[in-house]
C-alpha cells in the first residue's frame, strides 16, 4: 500500500517512467509515511485514439 495507477500517452521512455516512479515513491513516503518498498506503481500506456477530452479524441486534436 499504496498502489498508484498512472495513465500516460504511450511513447514515454523507460528512463522517463523510472524517474517518475522514483519521484512518486519519494512523495508517497514523505506524505503517507510508508516504506518505499510498500509503494507499487503501475503504468498504463494509452493510445491517443483511446483518450478523449471534451468529446474530442486526442488523436484528432493534433
Automatic annotation (TrEMBL):
Domain of life: Bacteria
Entry keyword annotation includes Isomerase: yes
Molecular function terms from GO: isomerase activity
SUPFAM superfamilies named in the record: Tautomerase/MIF
Domain 4-oxalocrotonate tautomerase-like: 2-60
Keywords, comma-separated and alphabetical: Isomerase
InterPro entries documented for this protein: 4-OT-like_dom, Tautomerase/MIF_sf
Family: Belongs to the 4-oxalocrotonate tautomerase family.
PANTHER family: BSL4019 PROTEIN (PTHR35530:SF2), TAUTOMERASE-RELATED (PTHR35530)
Protein name: 4-oxalocrotonate tautomerase
Amino acid at each position: 500500500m499504496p498502489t498508484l495507477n498512472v495513465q500516460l500517452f504511450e511513447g514515454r521512455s523507460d528512463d522517463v517512467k523510472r524517474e517518475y516512479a522514483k519521484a512518486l515513491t519519494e512523495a508517497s513516503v514523505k506524505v503517507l509515511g510508508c516504506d518505499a518498498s510498500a509503494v507499487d506503481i503501475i503504468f498504463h500506456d494509452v493510445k491517443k485514439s483511446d483518450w478523449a477530452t471534451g468529446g474530442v479524441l486526442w488523436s484528432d486534436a493534433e
